[in-house]
Structure formats: structure tokens, C-alpha cells
Amino acid sequence: MFRRWIEPFWKQKFRAPYVHIVFGARQTGKSTLLRKLLPQTALWVDLSRPGERAEYLRNPDLLVQQCRALPKSKSPAIVVVDEAQNVPDLFNGVQHLYDSDKKRWRFVLCGSSARKLRMTGANLLPGRGILYHLYPLVLAERPPARAERSEGAVSVLPLPVRRVGNEPGFPKVDIMERLLFGELPVVATAQPSHRADLLRTYTIVYLEEELRREALVKNWPAFARFLQLSAAEAGMMINYAGISREAGISLPTVKTYYQLLEDMFLGFRVTAFSGSPRKSLLSTERFFFFDLGVRNAAAEMPIETAAVRANPGPLFEQWVGIELWKRLQYLGDGKLHYLRTKAGAEVDFIIARDGRFTPIEVKWTERPTLGDAKHVMTFMREHPKQARHGYLICRCSAPLELSENVTALPWSCL
User: Fold this and answer.
1) Domain ranges of the chain
2) pLDDT at position 296, please?
3) Which CATH number fits domain 7-133: 3.40.50.300, 3.40.630.30, 3.10.20.90, 2.120.10.30?
């Protein structure tokens, strides 16, 4: 059993007398982590099983009956509902039970899609629930290979490793494997020869199963074309018109499909930075898949090292952006932006947190120079009070001071 960074926080919060709602994409490890944190469950409902799902769809009140049949005790009975979005009416039953006795049961509802809940107007228990998200592995959970680790460096966005019991961390791995296979726990712990097949199966079987089950997409071939195109353009500014034309679907449908990926926790947007004195800024959002391995499989890219080596720069930039986004979500504050002008000047990422801006440039180089960070320096000159230090994330062997307020960091120190 491998440790997850969020474990001690969730373990403490789950003691609070509320309904706990855990969201996250499939295979991020939600069920595994919940079984570890909640070993003494009185009832575990798994709605990913067709038979069990059909039973609760026929009779949503069944959960109420089962919970009331549980014996009373001094400690609350732990009730977990996995893939809860498959039977939205269960949320009403949970509210009824919670309101009738806040101490008798402790509910944990787990889901991999918010789409159906939103479309059906499901009861998300306002004022009664605490919302959590689980993401693929972050650098603190899956350290770099020893040869690439640089000790004592100050991170751009700290997320320190917190030891959980005696469990080991995930296997150390180099940057090439991360760019190729991503950070899903099930892929990170699989045999190398199985990883490509797991990723292809994830994008084909899981997505089709999930979409067909919820009847979210009527034209599966059209969505499959959209998925391949959106994955191929991941990390870039969203080109709605281009994807509409290439996929043969309307512009509103393209926008709906992007929202669908977000609702299934398969992607996120990075908005353009708007607080600049420059007037020629581009404002289109950038879209990233939540995991680089899933992105590669969805883009139908050959899952082999040669494909990464052919053009590693864009993948490296995406990996950095995904890592920063996951850590901001766990930290619970801050926003991730980017800046690009019509003239082509750009800052890959800008962290807005605690009233400060941290500009970040990403380069594949092993020998960074101050010229690689010229746009970071320009940004800091434009925001002297809020942006006091900038970073260049690259493959240098150790942190380098490029100027008084610009540091080149190895990716392993991110």
C-alpha cells in the first residue's frame, strides 16, 4: 500500500460530523484510499457494479432502509457510496438520514463525474457536506529518480511530503517516463510492459462506458474525433472553430464536449492573465488534460519513448502545468494563469496566490540562460510590487541564479 500526500488531512477531516463528498477521475485511487482511511465501514455500496446499481435505481429508498437497520453504537456507522453519481436520488436519502440523526451515521459519497448530478439537479447537500478532490500523483508522492534529485532547493509551490505510517512512497521515476505514461497510480505501479495498454484501455473502454451509461453523448464517433483533436491540442489555446471544422460538429457542441471533460474531471482550463498594462493580450483559455499519459493515449500518440523524444518541449510544459494545477487544488488557494500577447511574447504560467504573482517559464534545456527568461523579467518589471521572483523550470542539474530575482530550477525541485 503506497502513501498519498492527502491522507493525514482527510483522515482528520473525516471525523467531522458532516457528509463527505469525494470527487476525482477514475483510477486516481479514490476507492483504495477510502478503504485505507475507513477500514471499519458498516456499509459499502459500489454503484459501479451493474447489479448493485440496478437495485438502487429501482429502489432509491433501499439505502435508507439499510442504514436504519444498522445497529446503534457510540461511534457513528461509516457508510460509503462509491460512484454515487450513478444514482442521484441517493443524495436525497442521505440528507434525510443526516437530518434525522447527525451522530448515528457518517456518510462518504464518492464519484467520478459531476455532469449527471448537475444535469439532474441532484441534491449536493449544501450546508451539510464537505467536498474533496483526489488527483493523479504529485511530485511529493512520486519522487524523481535519485540521480535527478537536487537536495535543499526551494520549491516554486511547496507541497512537502508528509510521512504516513510506514508505507512506502511510489517508485521513483525519471522525467521521460512521466511525459510518456503520466501519473495515474494504477499506471505508475504497473509493469512497464503493461502501461501503454492500460492507458489505451482507459481512454477507449472507460470513457465510452461512462459516456454511454449516462447518455451524455448521442454521437459517439463525433465525440471520439473531438477527443483525439482536443488531446492533440492540449496545452494550447482552445481553437473551438478549428476543432469544430475538423471534427465535423457544431461550435456549441465543441464547447459542450469541453465542459463534459471538465465535469468528468478529465481536464481543466488555464485562464489568460488579465492584470497586465499591455493592451494586446490574448484572452483565450488553454485546456489541459488531467494526466499526460491519458492525454497521449487520447491523442493516439504512439506510447513509446521515441514519440516523446521527437518533440519533448510541449509535453514537458504540460507536465509542469498539470503539476502546478494539482498542487494549487490541494493547497486550496491560488489560481493558475498564462500570458500571451498578439506579438508572441508569453509567460507559460503565472501563479496568483496571497496577493503575489509568480511567473514561470518552462524550457526543455539543460543549460538555461537569462535569455530564456526574458518574458519573465518583463512581467516582473510590469508588476514590481506583486511579482518579486520568477522561475525557469528546466533540466539543469541544480538550481541556478540567473539574476537577482530569477532562478532556474530543475524539474525535480518544482
Assistant:
1) 7-133, 146-413
2) 96
3) 3.40.50.300
Encode pLDDT of 402-413 as tens digits: 999 999 999 998
**Which residue(s) pair with 245 in the sheet?**
none
| Cβ-based neighbour number of residue 243 at 10 Å | 23
Say which range, 26-40, 342-356, 364-378, 382-396, has the weakest mean pLDDT.
342-356
Show the cell assigned to 348.
507559460
Residue at 147: amino acid letter: A
Strand pairing of 77-82 and 41-46? Answer: parallel
Please tell me the pTM assigned to this model: 0.93
DSSP alpha helix (H) spans, 21-157: 30-37, 50-58, 62-69, 90-100, 115-119
- Beta-strand pair 267-272/335-340: parallel
Distance CA 332, CA 42 (A): 31
pLDDT 10s digits, 176-191: 999 999 999 999 999 9
Residue found under cell 512512497: 169
Cβ burial, residue 40 (10 Å; 0-12/13-18/19+): exposed
Q: Which residues contact 37 (CB under 8 A, 6 or more apart)?
A: 7, 10, 11, 14
Does the structure show a pLDDT above 90 at 389? yes
